[in-house]
Amino acid sequence: xxxNSSKIEANKENFRPYPTFDSSLSFFDPNKQSQNTxxxxxxxxxxxxxxxxxxxxxxxxxxxxxxxxKAKDKRNYCSITAEEFFNLSTLSLNYFCQSLKNEGANQVFxxxxxxxxxxxxxxNLQINEITCLRFEKINYYCQNLTYLKLDLGSNNIAQENxxxxxxxxxxxLTNLKQFYIDLRWNNLTDSNCEQIxxxxxxxxxxxxxxxxxxxxxxTSIGVNFICSELKHILMLKKLYFHLSQNKIDDNxxxxxxxxxxxxxYLQTVDISLQDNAISNQGSIELCKSxxxxxxxxxxxxxxxxxxxxxxxxxxxxxxFVQSANFRKLEQFFLEFRLxxxxxxxxxxxxxxxxxxxxxxxxxxxxxxxxxxxKKHITPMLDFQPQYxxxxxLY
Length: 394
Fold this sequence. Notes:
- This protein has 394 residues and is of the alpha/beta class.
- Helices cover 31% and strands 18% of the residues.
- It contains twelve helices and twelve strands.
- Residues 1-48 are annotated as: Disordered.
């Protein structure tokens, strides 16, 4: 299996649906929330998504020419002229695994950011051998954008100035309300996180932000760079921050918790920190900061494959379910996965179950997931399953 194929399989394995994005069609609806599973492809995507205001195209060879040619091939569904294309208000482009490289990606950016009526934009540039982003000749037209999602996963944008020019883009987006950027599998370091922090410091007007930075080389220093700017977006209502499989310890978790405490209007918090080096202290502080948010309605925190033990699991759970805001939650998801020999899973399960039972509301979606796995199985336990799983669901 080649490198690109392995990355594709890894992406499928680690897929978590992003808000407002249907991965099967490269189609997004700013007013629609995704479900827990990807939506099945529609049989006739052009018929439903091609009108005078919106357009969806998968993998054209050239940008404008390719878009128009694709429309002609689908003439039974719709047709579009160059003039109509540049007057679109909603655009979704899928260039997944097209080997565009830097030159092709930059051409895409230059073209779409010159569309004067565009207010919602999604671009999928996963696996395109991109090493450096350049946002050149961005004019005042892009100020109309209110929704922007850039999917740049599985490239190699880790060089010194790989994403530095992203700041040149975001500082022009004075009306942007929803910003999502996927930079998974890019070998990002802390210096790249400093560039990401610089790019969001101009977006004080944001309502929603999604930073998908899993599978990189980020430490707590990088988390600090991002959180030092993120905490100033005071009106933020939805935060999606995915940092799984990095090198983050308790310091990073505490810095993130301090950032969250400063964002008083947060209603949705989705944090993925699995497979890092976070222990009891970081887990408890993070859960405490989220549970103290007075307007919180959705809280999802993934902390499995860290160094959280019995004490951390119990007290992290208590921070949530015994807080005054717990009964306001419409959705609560907290997951731990630990080595079987490092905890007493039955004891933890019983205690957590009792805590949840005393504070739960039947009309809410709540889940506390405890999974214990055996890395070394003794002969006497060979008949037992490899995994033992406890779900507390109400």
